[in-house]
Amino acid sequence: MLDLRLADDAGVSVSVLSLGLACCAVEVDAAVQAGLLIPSDTIEGPAPRLTVLVVAGTVTAPLVPVVESALAALPATSAVLAFGACASTGGPYWDSPSVINGVDRLVEVRQYVPGCPPRPEALCDALREMA
How much is the pTM? Predict the structure, then answer.
């Protein structure tokens, strides 16, 4: 997991769980490379108002314990964002027997970002809405 924050708002802390099984994980990396998300340890200031677990990629049955333990490791003031079609509904892989048809079947999701894949700016917009 990477601990990141929005570059223009130090009040949102983002824990990115990049499952790396679909193109959405690359879009999260693109947000970091573009400077839209920056490492939390480079920002001074008040503690974050909210920690967001970004699930970006196809969630399969073997990854269920990983998602659950990642959420359990976060503070009480946390929320889940499903980034992209695969995390939201299973995407084009929805009919595979090992694919979970949306991370919301495992945990409560507060925000969805549609697309296949969504743009990095869409991720940042959703995080701002959650703050």
Answer: 0.89
